[in-house]
């Protein structure tokens, strides 16, 4: 049995907003907090009861807000603290929660702490970062090149796991721990209900190891942040490279005083060697990763997170399935196979209308620092055309282009010129069009979330997988007390299916169908209550 707190948090349905690209309220081409407020009813009607905002803090935007220069102020382009307070009130007034993105591993080098730190070895901030006379290891930055940078003023090297302008904080310094506790408390006092914590695994380091992260003091630091009475009520989800259940238990077991849940990435890799090498991911592999983690988290009463999309990944419908002829079917079958499992649903903006990846025909259309740096690197060994093809495949901008609200100019996102171009098919694929279509992805999501809300079996019910590893489809049941529901998700091909039980009529389906047995078209899915078991 999940503990009481996790049972309550299992009812959260969280919508991730990339503020820069969600809705522009003042026509400068950049999404902002007032824009978000305008769209809260759209989210409420979808069935979402919480939003996670990607970083909104003061930032020079080298990594779109993940380079923070003041944790207690709002990015100029997004609005003011008064706008943030208005957003919190608007959310709470609708019975919705707010989750902020906490970035504890690094700050922008323009943060006051770093500016002080680089001045010398004996000021209050000198040990806020990692400084070395000689480069201590061969760690690389996630955005290419060495993770060590020489600072001429200080005359030493500092660590940056990401951009040169994102310096890693030294958590071994108790003043850093205190500063981050104070940051959390500041936002709790503003009324924030939870945090998504960026690269949580990196806050403790072991410089003798081959890679950054999972250092010896990791759990002590997480506990220092969230194992306090003041933080006990929060929903917390850590972004982490955890691959095994024992490590997840150490983060998320109810008595640890650490995190509610983690974002795990096994199912996002789907066997790919690297994110820029084009390949078709497989629904079967996705299914098998999902099943594995369902079983593990169920066994140990852990709260799981359910997601396929975020601001770092091309949309799943473009990676898996068919985002052209079968876009509606692909978008909805993925939703059914994911969100009817046990865990907290996370929906990334645009996913609910089946928005596909962007594709740009020139490198200067891209903004993402990882894409731009990687392109330069690729061009050393391949033609610009080939490099561009790889960037188009794996770029984070595939998920960062503005939300298409309508088929109007700039997709109704802004009256000004957007900071980055919309996906090229926005006249065909946008929220208004989707909502007025017979085959609306939004309406399917709405029905799915309503079904989940109305039937506790989808929250707490035990999972049983009916299909085998070889089957090109996914059939599972959820069972609670004497109530059982079955979910059928077909993959690419046609299938003739006969279920081992009698079912009611489908309560949810992405195509018209009367019974659960029979022929399933590619990407067809259906959900029904089981009447009796024939075996
Ligand atoms: O991402 C960290 C991360 O682990 C990587 O997947 C990273 O996103 C990168 O894409 C390598 O391909 C988090 C944030 O989600 C990301 O947006 C930030 O850029 C990063 O941390 C640094 O704060
Ligand atoms: Ca704006």
Could you characterize the architecture of this molecule?
- With 535 residues, this protein is an alpha/beta fold.
- The protein has 3 domains: 4-105 and 174-444, Glycosidases (TIM Barrel); 112-168, Oligo-1,6-glucosidase, domain 2 (Alpha-Beta Complex); 462-533, Immunoglobulin-like.
- Helices cover 29% and strands 18% of the residues.
- The protein has 17 helices and 23 strands.
- It has helices spanning 4-9, 33-38, 40-46, 81-93, 112-117, 174-190, 218-226, 245-252, 266-269, 283-299, 316-319, 327-339, 369-379, 384-394, 431-435, 441-454, 457-460; strands spanning 14-17, 50-53, 57-58, 70-74, 97-102, 106-108, 131-132, 148-151, 156-159, 166-168, 194-197, 235-239, 261-263, 305-306, 344-348, 462-465, 473-480, 483-490, 495-497, 501-503, 508-509, 518-520, 525-533.
- The protein has an 8-stranded parallel sheet with strand order 13-12-11-5-2-1-15-14, covered by helices on one side. Strands 16, 17, 18, 20, 21 and 23 form a 6-stranded antiparallel sheet that branches. Strands 7-9-8 form a 3-stranded antiparallel sheet, with no helix packed on it.
- Helix 6 (174-190) packs parallel to helix 7, helix 12 (327-339) runs parallel beside helix 16 (441-454) and helix 13 packs antiparallel against helix 14 (384-394).
- The chain is globular.
- The two termini are 28 Å apart.
- The model has no long low-confidence stretch (mean pLDDT 96).
- The protein binds 1-O-alpha-D-glucopyranosyl-D-fructose and calcium ion.
- 1-O-alpha-D-glucopyranosyl-D-fructose (TEU) is lined by residues 63, 66, 103, 142, 162, 198-199, 239, 311-312, 370, 396.
